[in-house]
Recover the amino acids of this structure.
């Protein structure tokens, strides 16, 4: 898939020492590129937007995503957690949580912004050869 913004190009995905883990590295790179494409659609003025009083704002979701992934990766790698100030930079950076990426795509739609593709074309972005599975017939195509 081609993303509007790329943080980790395919040729920069590290090679795993053990081939069994290569898919995890490639998936992480792909998910990171999806997050960057979604996050890049928001202007700083949108950070305070929340669609309902009980909903988190765009900025709160991004902050939560960065902080929770900081803990996940530290535990996953058996490494110390970096300080929160190291994870919340002045400029936006990306890590992945598909739940929050999806949440933010809904916010983009509510703000009448373009929704970038993550796993396939959207109502806003498609390309020649895109093949969304919208019918039983489409699902049977090979």
């Amino acid at each position: 898939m081609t993303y509007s913004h790329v943080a980790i190009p395919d040729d920069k995905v590290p090679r795993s020492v053990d081939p069994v883990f290569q898919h995890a590295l490639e998936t992480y790179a792909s998910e990171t590129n999806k997050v960057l494409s979604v996050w890049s659609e928001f202007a700083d003025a949108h950070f305070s937007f929340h669609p309902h009083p009980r909903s988190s704002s765009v900025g709160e979701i991004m902050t939560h995503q960065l902080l929770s992934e900081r803990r996940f990766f530290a535990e996953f790698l058996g490494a110390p957690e970096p300080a929160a100030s190291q994870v919340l930079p002045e400029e936006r950076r990306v890590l992945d949580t598909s739940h929050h990426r999806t949440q933010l795509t809904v916010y983009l739609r509510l703000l009448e912004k373009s929704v970038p593709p993550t796993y396939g074309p959207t109502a806003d972005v498609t390309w020649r050869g895109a093949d969304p599975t919208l019918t039983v017939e489409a699902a049977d195509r090979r």
In short: Residues 90-96 have pLDDT under 50 and may be disordered.
